[in-house]
Amino acid sequence: MNYFEILNCDVNSTTEEIKENYRNLILKFHPDKGHEDQEMFVKINEAWTVLKDEKQRKLYESQLLSNEKSHLNVYKCVCLEDMQKNGDGFSCPCRCGSEFCISEEDTQVNDVNDGNLFISCDTCSLLLEIIPSRC
Question: How far apart are CA 22 and CA 32, in angstroms?
């Protein structure tokens, strides 16, 4: 279980949302409240210590991404500008003969410049990693 899961949030949660969840959980699991799961209390505090600090949180998020990437079936890594522009989106051929497609709106919502983005092939299980700058 990662720190975000411990605090019932995700990587997109704001610090305020994480703080609110932390406060609710710390009250629920506090030993003085008669809760016997002291290990969970310690994990909640540990998670909050990392996620409340911007530098520690960024480092933790990059470690999570690195761990996740090692388990992904990534076909290749491309920059958005290397993908073919078509209509209202971008595409890149997959080795299965199909294509990886992403709309221009999705590239803005998931701001590629903020970090890597993964899209799946419509036909097979491969993923395409879109990175902020040239490979």
Answer: 16
Which tokens sit at 101? 């497609």
Q: What percent of the chain has pLDDT over 70?
A: 90
User: Long-range contacts for 4-7 (Cβ within 8 Å, ≥24 apart)?
Assistant: 4/47, 4/51, 6/40, 6/43, 6/44, 6/47, 7/44, 7/47, 7/48, 7/51
Task: Of 51, 55, 38, 40, give the one whose Cα is nearest residue 3.
Answer: 51
Domain 74-131: CATH superfamily, name plus number: DPH Zinc finger (3.10.660.10)
CATH code, 3-69: 1.10.287.110
Q: Where do the domains of the chain lie?
A: 3-69, 74-131
The answer to whether the CB of 26 falls within 8 A of the CB of 44 is: yes
Say if pTM beats, i.e. exceeds, 0.70.
no
